[in-house]
Design goal:
Number of helices: 10
Oligomer: single chain
Number of strands: 10
Shape: globular
Strand content: 15-25%
Order of helices and strands: EEEHEHEHEHEHEHEHHEHH
Strand order of the largest sheet: 3-4-5-6-7-8-9-10
Helix content: 25-40%
Structural class: alpha/beta
Distance between the termini: 30 Å
Largest sheet: 8 strands, parallel
Length: 274
């Protein structure tokens, strides 16, 4: 899989990762956990590393922790989660639980979820980074209504990562936020790269355009994901899935040729014509 470097460190991160919202909230179901174990194995087999979760995703953190420990995958994964509460002490307790749930001594990336009590948690996480409890510090949001605040915070250069929504149908981030992240050296994780599967309703029953082969694209999921990860500011996209076959198709979006700027514009025109 193709990689991009994390600007603050130069560490390489594969373009396609895995989100866990809803899909990994599986509880003790053997059948569901078996399928999710295959999803994780497929991610790693294809060269992916990023697995992103949150304490607001039900039991997802615990399922990720159990499966990565069971499969012995921790050295090959880049684990990311979030703090989503208010208050200094409550934040520390929640983050400690996340470390325990995901069964890791060091979290690769801890993010302040939806900017909740962002200043309090930023101060805590800067100390945690110095102490080696986390490797990277980030901020997140899932809605363009927060872009103004994300821009202001990115400009402070206190954050290694920003996670935001971006897809072919939600391109507002292209105007200011993605260029600013690129300029200031902040890595970008894209959530909702498939609009939570909403993009597929637009193309159901329709064939890929034959020119998609020019950038090694063989499915609509790859069409949508290659558009996202071909933006030079994007470090990694994290589509969620509980299906190993979907994980394989998603991962292939990070392989082969990517569309250049003229092709990206052609992709948008085609999508909007459907």
């Amino acid at each position: 899989m193709l990689t991009r470097t994390i600007p603050g460190s130069g560490e390489a991160l594969p373009l396609i990762g895995l989100g866990t919202y809803r899909t990994f909230d599986a509880g003790a179901s053997v059948a569901k956990r078996t399928a999710l174990a295959e999803v994780l194995k497929t991610l790693v087999a294809c060269g992916g590393r990023m697995v992103d979760s949150s304490p607001m995703y039900g039991r997802a953190e615990g399922v990720v922790g159990d499966l990565q420990a069971q499969l012995g995958l921790r050295p090959r994964l880049f684990l990311a989660t979030k703090v989503w509460t208010s208050g200094h002490d409550a934040g520390i307790r929640q983050m400690q639980r996340s470390l325990q749930s995901m069964q890791t001594g060091t979290m690769d990336l801890m993010q302040i979820h939806n900017l909740v009590d962002v200043h309090t948690h930023t101060a805590t996480l800067e100390k945690w980074k110095q102490q080696g409890k986390i490797r990277y510090l980030g901020i997140t949001h899932y809605h363009e209504g927060a872009y103004g605040e994300l821009e202001r915070l990115i400009a402070t250069r206190r954050y290694d990562f920003v996670q935001l929504n971006y897809c072919m149908a939600e391109r507002t981030a292209e105007r200011r936020l993605l260029p600013l992240a690129h300029e200031t050296g902040v890595a970008v994780i894209v959530n909702r790269p498939l609009a939570q599967a909403g993009l597929f309703s637009r193309v159901r029953g329709k064939a890929l355009p034959p020119w998609a082969a020019e950038f090694d694209c063989s499915s609509w999921s790859q069409f949508f994901l290659k558009y996202v990860v071909s933006h030079p500011a994007v470090t990694c996209a994290i589509p969620a899935t509980s299906e190993p076959a979907h994980m394989l198709s998603n991962a292939m979006a990070g392989d082969g040729r990517l569309p250049d700027e003229p092709m990206r514009a052609r992709m948008v025109r085609h999508f909007e014509s459907l």
